[in-house]
C-alpha cells in the first residue's frame, strides 16, 4: 500500500471534496474548523505537484486553499498557490475575472507581509481587468478601489486613499445593482481613513451613514455591532465619553448574547473597552477587558499574530499603570496632569 499511486479519477474526487469543503475559505470561522485538515491538503498538493496536472478544477482548488495558509500566516505557501492557480487559468484560457480575483488575492497577501509596492501592483492589475471587462461603474470595480484605498493608508498616502475611497463610494451610490451592505462597508472604510489622520468629525459623518444602513440588518447583526463599536470609538475620541461607554456596553451585551463570548467581534469590543478604560486611567477595568480579549483571540490566531502581540504590549502598559497607581498617595498630584489630587481624580474609583 505504501507504493500505491491514486488514479486521476480518485484525485479528481478528492479535489471535488476539498474544493466544496473550502467554498467559504475566506471566512475566518470556516478556516478554524478545517485547521486539522491541513495535513490532507498538503498531501493532495504533493500529489498534484508530482503528477503535474493542470485543469480548471485544480486551479479552483489552489485558489480556495490559499486563504487557509494565509490565515495561519504561511504566506509563502499562499502566494505559491495563488500563482499556480493563475498559471493554470492563463494556460487553459479561463475567464479574465478569475485572473483579476487572483491578482486581488496576491495584493492582499503582499500587503500583509509589508511588500506594499508589490501589493499595489497586483491590485492595479486586478483593477485594470475589472474596468476593461466589467466597466468603471461596476460594484466589483468599486471593491478594488476600496482595497487600494486601505493599502494607501498603510503606505502613508492618505490623500490617494481618500481619492480611491470616494471613487468606490461614487460607484456604489450611482449603481442600480449595488448591495446596500457594500455601500455601508465603503462608508465605513472612508470613515476609518479619516480616523487614521485624526479627522474624527469627518469619520463620524460616514460612520453615521453606514450605521443607518446596517441598522436595517437588525441590532444583532455582526456588521451592525461592528459599526456601532466604531461609532463608540469616535465618540470617545471627540470627548463624548458617556455616549461612547453606553454604545460599548450595549453592543457588548448584544455581541455576547448573539455571537458568543468566544467570538472575534466580541473580542474586538473587549479590546476597545480596555483602551477606553486605560485612557481614563481605570487600569484595573482595562486589565479585565484586555485579558478577555486575549483569551478569545488566542483561540483563533497563531501565537506570533500581530493582534496578540498588540494585546500583550497593552497588558504590559496596563500592568505598569496599576503598579504606578499603587505608589501614588491620595494627596499627591494625579499622574494624568489634571491638576487635581490623585484621590479626587483617577484614584477616585479605588
What is the element layout, followed by pairings?
Blueprint: H1 8-21, H2 28-33, H3 38-51, H4 56-71, H5 75-92, H6 96-112, H7 116-133, H8 139-154, H9 158-174, H10 180-196, H11 200-214, H12 222-237, H13 241-258, H14 264-279, H15 283-300, H16 306-327
Helix pairs in contact: 1-3, 1-4, 4-5, 5-6, 6-7, 7-8, 8-9, 8-10, 9-10, 10-11, 11-12, 12-13, 12-14, 13-14, 14-15, 15-16
Keywords:
globular, about 350 residues, 16 helices, mainly alpha
- Major sheet characteristics: none
Give the oligomer, counting copies of the same chain as homo and different chains as hetero: single chain
How does the overall form come out from the CA principal axes? globular
Helical content stands at: over 70%
